[in-house]
Amino acid sequence: MSVTLQIWRQAAADKPGHFVEYKATNCNPNMSFLEMLDVVNDDLEKRGEDPIAFAHDCREGICGTCSLVIDGKPHGPHEGIASCQTYMRSFEDGAVITVEPYRAKPFPVIKDLITDRSAFDKIQQAGGFISIRTGAAQDANALPIPKQDADLAMDAAACIGCGACVAACKNAAAMLFVSAKVSQFALLPQGQPERDTRVLNMVAKMDELGFGNCTNQYECSAACPKLISHDFIGRMNRDYIAATFRAACKDKPAASTGGA
């Protein structure tokens, strides 16, 4: 099969970008989308042209690095699948496929299809951790956890931080990512000591970095390759309101009356 690619090319963050057309011929329908890009890059290098820059790592839908917008949809045409798990058999022979980077102010383009998503790392560093000792693997059953809570925590922890939720949202909101990272700890006993500071700090950092507000359109969960539920956003909002209330109501130190 053969396809025509409209690829976004941009030399650097401070350079203008534009779409360039490439032909991908003799594609095996069973090759992945990234393997097809590898073949196109091999041809470009043979002609002495600059290859298309795109990010990838595991190519197994685990790392979230392969973040592409394919035909206007983050990660491509399928549901619950990352770009690296999209195969050429998903497209018609002779199809015209548009490939571009994530479009969001907090994700500036580095080159071509690669964006800087370190903003997610900064949000995680603001509170996405626990500081208490939890023991080793053999201690896992020392603290019983209701199955429903454990299952929900695991669902939230499935987030791979790819940024598809931001790219799909018209407001470039990071609420699905942040709510998943908040909830995976808030649902477990080990995450309770820092529960309030975690949600307050991570939401504050999200706002500081320029992500937009959630308007409940749910494009985020529709584009998520791990099918993270938007229900976590509601859970985080409730935690945030409660944490804000508790922070405002904390007793202030009693004023000193002085002494002789």
UniProtKB/TrEMBL annotation:
Residues 1-103 form the 2Fe-2S ferredoxin-type domain. Transmembrane segments: none annotated. InterPro entries: 2Fe-2S_ferredoxin-like_sf, 2Fe-2S_ferredoxin-type, 2Fe2S_fd_BS, 4Fe4S_Fe-S-bd, Beta-grasp_dom_sf, Helical_ferredxn, SDH/FRD_Iron-Sulfur, Succ_DH/fum_Rdtase_N. GO terms for biological process: aerobic respiration; respiratory electron transport chain. GO terms for molecular function: 2 iron, 2 sulfur cluster binding; electron transfer activity. It holds the Pfam family Fer4_7. Its cofactor is [3Fe-4S] cluster; [2Fe-2S] cluster. Residues 150-180 form the 4Fe-4S ferredoxin-type domain. SUPFAM superfamilies: 2Fe-2S ferredoxin-like, alpha-helical ferredoxin. Belongs to the succinate dehydrogenase/fumarate reductase iron-sulfur protein family. PANTHER family: SUCCINATE DEHYDROGENASE, SUCCINATE DEHYDROGENASE IRON-SULFUR PROTEIN. This is Succinate dehydrogenase.
